[in-house]
UniProtKB/TrEMBL annotation:
TM spans (from-to): none
Keywords: DNA-binding, Transcription, Transcription regulation
UniProt-recorded Gene Ontology molecular function terms: DNA binding; DNA-binding transcription factor activity
Domain (HTH gntR-type): residue spans on this chain: 5-72
Source organism per UniProt: Aerococcus urinae
Keyword Nucleotide-binding: no
Lineage: Bacteria, Bacillati, Bacillota, Bacilli, Lactobacillales
Source organism, top-level taxon: Bacteria
The name this protein goes by in its record: GntR family transcriptional regulator
Amino acid sequence: MGKQQKLEQIAYLYMKDQIIQGNWPNDHHIVEAAISEKLDMSRSPIRAALAILADEEIVEMRPYRGFFVKTSLEDVDLVAFRLRYFAICYFRLMDRALKHKASAKDLPADLDQNLNNLIAAFDSDNYLDCIQWECAIIKSLLNLSQHDFLVEEAIKCYASVLERVHNHLQAGDNKTHCAYQARNIIYIQDIIFLAKRNEFDETRTLIELLTLHQYQYFNDQEKAVFDQASPYAMK
């Protein structure tokens, strides 16, 4: 996926997320300048994303007035949608980190301690703390992008996905829950390993695998929402 299409997809997912949450109700006026400032991009990819949303009849163009929300999406599963949003945010933010010439020396000093905290939480079956430390580790990598708003969007999305999966697994046996979290930790460890070797670009493959790992624990309806979340390719 080229840079322009990545920007379009970020804009598309951000706007759709606002509509699904109900932050933008029917007839809400979508202000391109405000979105451009939040996402730190020009209006061109935003307009391209709006055209896709218009084709889907989610928004409509009103002559001389701009784009407005046409269809409420509050019945769409927000968490399943946000798994796709998280992955695309990560890909985009790593592009920015590389553009800013991020290196291993820029990684926070507490990265290893956060990993130790994650492992300790896992060893004590404290899965809520696992969510906290996983998010802290990924956030420390994404902060290299110098895009505070999109980093917060990504972490908010990832945390909600982890909470959903853990809630699903709490109803089952602890062995399955343990296996799920153990795999998460393996991916996180490998991501840190690559980051310390300045192989930030390669971490995107692991994030894709981590995303698909969460997907495997979704029910059929949630998987359908993820699959239909965006008309764009994942990468």
